[in-house]
Amino acid sequence: MNLLQIADTVMTSPAVYLLIFAFTLVDAVLPVMPSEAVIVAAGAFAATGEPDVLGVVLSAALGIVAGDHIMYAIGSRITRRRPASKLAQLIARATPLLRRRGGNLIITGRFVPGGRIATTAACGATHYPIRRFTVYASIAALLWATFATMIGFIGGTAFEEHPIYGVVAGIAIALSVTGVTELVAYRRRRRRPQTLPTP
């Protein structure tokens, strides 16, 4: 059985939605699972009819939201267990910013490499209102899941006769977008005036 046959068997199985949910949940907590690649691949195969494109988006979004709430819970324990730590002090200083711009940070953080975990944990640590967090985390999850799925879907449509090429093209596009996003974030950080340490 070659790679395409294995991928076709997995992607056309009803269990693919559970697989997507599991990958995105784990990736939201520990970014060691290639959830974006899985979603892009599912999107590429969805262009051929299976799996269902809406099912891919929803299962990915649900996994992301579940994982984000786990990170929120982990973050909420930081200040409780070590209220005098330097990390807790940094979080205390970040609280006003999250109160003012929490929604924007939660949504944009989902698209920034490494940003989603830091943002969701900080929301928990600062006790950002859980209902508001759920709303913004759900919006961010739906946007990101739709983005990743449609990248794969476009690639799958372009290479309808060879879905594996669509997967490769979709992943390449996703990595390019991620790279550009990280470059923009890096340049913005460099342009910020550095605060000199007090003697």
UniProtKB/TrEMBL annotation:
The chain crosses the membrane at residues 12-33, 53-74, 135-158, 164-186. The keyword Cell membrane applies. Coiled coil: none annotated. It is found in: Cell membrane. Pfam families: VTT_dom. Residues 34-152 form the VTT domain. InterPro entries: DedA-like, VTT_dom. It is a multi-pass membrane protein. Its main location: membrane. Keywords: Cell membrane, Membrane, Transmembrane, Transmembrane helix. The keyword Nucleotide-binding does not apply. One of its GO terms (cellular component) is plasma membrane. Belongs to the DedA family. PANTHER family: INNER MEMBRANE PROTEIN DEDA-RELATED, TRANSMEMBRANE PROTEIN. This is VTT domain-containing protein.
